[in-house]
Amino acid sequence: MDLIDKKILYLLQSNARMSNANIAREIKLAPSVTLSRVRKLEEQGIITGYEAKLNHHELGLDMLAFVLIQVTGDKDIESLLIAIPGVQEVHNVAGDDCYLIKIRTRNTESLSKLLKEKVRGESISTKTIIVLTTLKETSKLTF
Amino acid sequence: MDLIDKKILYLLQSNARMSNANIAREIKLAPSVTLSRVRKLEEQGIITGYEAKLNHHELGLDMLAFVLIQVTGDKDIESLLIAIPGVQEVHNVAGDDCYLIKIRTRNTESLSKLLKEKVRGESISTKTIIVLTTLKETSKLTF
DNA sequence: CAGAAAACAGAATAAAATTCTATTATTAAG
DNA sequence: CTTAATAATAGAATTTTATTCTGTTTTCTG
Predict the structure, then answer these.
(1) How confident is the model over B65-99, as pLDDT tens digits?
(2) Å between A139 CA and D23 C1'?
(3) Which whole-number Å values give the CA distances from A42 to A27, A83, B55, B90, in the listed order?
(4) Domain extents in chain A
(5) Which of A58, A117, B95, B129 is 20 to 30 A from B21, comparing alpha carbons?
(6) In terms of CA atoms, which chain B residue is nearest residue A79?
(7) The domain made up of B57-130 is a member of CATH 3.30.70.920
């Protein structure tokens, strides 16, 4: 990975739908070479995918919350958490057999209902962090 | 927004670089119509962007942490937090003038150094949640 | 310095994006 | 129910892009 690859990654992180021709113009290389570099980054697993980002508000998902979930060591709650609609992230975190999930719902009611129905029964305790406003939210990385 | 638009959003969330021609084939509409629908979704602000997702491991960013930061009401810590390299999310959360950030670093040392140098001085307290393994991480939404 | 490997540019062609026009629904008003 | 207006669509034409191929240049290695 050289400077050119880093520029490509920067561009594709900013706009994943940028055409190969435009990337080529930006980095001042021929389209053929540019394409093979992008393909290589994909094959090497450095680029893992391309996602469209949607406006949660417009989709009626106004609620964002992080929930810390403590479980007993023997429960398999992982596949359950992953499958919950609205759950965008599931992390296993250090200390006390804990999971941290990031979840989007329509409102506080739908969140509370979801936690009650799907999570509470499988966990020792939950601690919910309600997001009021989001100031930054991206998967972009600088390196 | 009808069912066709939802299909388009589903496809672009799965692969933002899918060609318009392929989207058209999937939803069984002419490319011209498909393109105008995608453009409309962009103009309406329903699609807010397209991001390439990168492999953190490959980029040497093995550490992921969430940090809860408590501040006094009068401090402007927001622009500071947003500008920290590796910070992917900054949320203002309910209760006790708190921020929650999601941050990627090279290792525990670089995390601790970052918090010490940039955050501690501006905050009353910080609470760091270290991620051991990530089971799911996407911005994809089903609706 | 010589040879091999990788990276590159540029041309050719296949495919896609984009625009345009005409046709077909859909909707709203009378 | 009919008609006019609006929106959605298909399909053709054209521009642009993606992709492959060939030959050259550069870079690395011994």
Answers:
(1) 999 999 987 778 999 999 999 999 999 999 887 99
(2) 41
(3) 18, 27, 10, 29
(4) 3-43, 57-130
(5) A58
(6) B135
(7) yes
